Amino acid sequence: xxxxxxIINKFALLLAGSAMFVSCNDYLDEMPDNRTxxxxxxxxxxxxxxxxxxxxxxxxxxxxxDNTDDRGKKFNVSNDLWEDAYRFQHISxxxxxxxEEIWNATYRAIAAANHALEGIEKMIASxxxxxxxxxxxxxxxxxxxxYAHFTLCNVFCQAYNxxxxxxxxxxxxxxxxxxTVFVDYERGTVADVYQKIAEDxxxxxxxxxxxxxxxxxxxxxxxxxxxxxxxxxxxxxxYEQAVKCATAAIGEDPTPSFRDWDTFNxxxxxxxxxxxxxxxxxxxxxxxxQGVQSLAGRLFSGRYVVTRTKIDEVVEGAGPWxxxxxxxxxxxxxxxxxxxxxxxxxxxxxxxxxxxQGIGYPYVINVPFTVEKTIVDRAExxxxxxxxxxxxxxxxxxxxxxxxxxxxxxEQIAAFYAAGETPNSLTLAPRMTVAEGTQNGLVQACLHAxxxxxxxxxxxxxxxxxxxxxxxxxxxxxxxxxxxPFDKRLAVQLPAAVISAGxxxxxx
Length: 508
Known about the structure:
Elements lengths: L9 H6 L8 H5 L12 H8 L9 H7 L4 E2 L9 H7 L12 H28 L8 H22 L33 H15 L17 H15 L2 H12 L10 H5 L5 H8 L7 E8 L10 E2 L2 H7 L11 H4 L4 E3 L3 E3 L6 E6 L4 E12 H15 L2 H14 L8 H10 L18 H16 L6 H7 L4 E3 L7 E3 L12 H5 L8
Antiparallel strand pairs: 1-3, 2-7, 4-5, 6-7, 8-9
């Protein structure tokens, strides 16, 4: 059930263990996707198809979050990986969605980006292309490299924190294609990783040219690149830059690009029909679409799932808008035995690599960047800047695209979360100073809105991680799992093969 594309990443091979070094010289003689030497802009463009990770941490991160619940020991554990993630145990599985698959697939994407960048420099030096002619491909390669390292850092490291990130362990930031197998990589720190991501982002965003893409939504277009940059700078604490990039992605007024909820909520009767409508690349609200290998479409079938209680808490619960936010509460919800619930956003498809033998891999369509998510990113940045008026305006944009027909005031938003009468009123132990009162209320409103917009997508745990929110995973028949603020277990342990290869693991 794996994708056996001939994408060879020397770094990933090293970290996967010495058993993989059979015919190693043959691997080292190949380009990452088995093509000829990169000597034209067209070949760079083809190479960059491989620079987007084929595996994302959707399952691991969602299972770790407070979106997931235990529906009881009477239900079978259908996948050990899902249970280990929910229980914050070491994940030894190497199957689809595992930390090892995330690690290797993401470093393969980085290798492809680095080979593309190397080919670009050689073309410029040899006169086969000018820097101007090849600039859009260089921009995409830099964005892909930054995105891949950002993904790895979010999974395997602690959240960025100006007080601790200079010492918190990072992940190796790889900027060159490897010519030898045994390379002495160091993890560095989270601060190092963020600085290098920022350098790649700043160098790459301005080079993007949307006209170079046959299918723009599957690449870093200008809007997608800026949406990614907005999220990154929000996490980095660079709020003015986050606002600037978010505005470049969605405009001052994002209403022209609001999701077509009528089309989605009337898309059909099956999960596949709804999923196709939600993830449609023609949907203006979808800024970046990815097809990734994953069993995320099966999460409803296990013991640890999104329950009825969680659906009520996330998409059908009260907020500053009142009892429900119509477009979200009207979303189709499917159920399994009346206890497991899912919204059809990640329906499973299957791609055969050998139809005769029935071999292939499951995949889902994921939408990492959307207009509604970027609205929330900008609102949070404004709130942390102290610009409460702009934060409230953006929160009202989110509520408006969610179907609210009236305006909510700053005071009403702050009062709702201060009252503490909802599971979405949180105790923040922030990485940055968040003042009590209005600022705290607006930040909590952003976390609540993002939780609604990203259910099933894994983003929720990143917010709990960034703000040091304690939460509990209930275990039927066993002691509950208590996650403390800035818990060490929030940084997923590196794969065993990576640690065996000499890369220090995360403290426990």
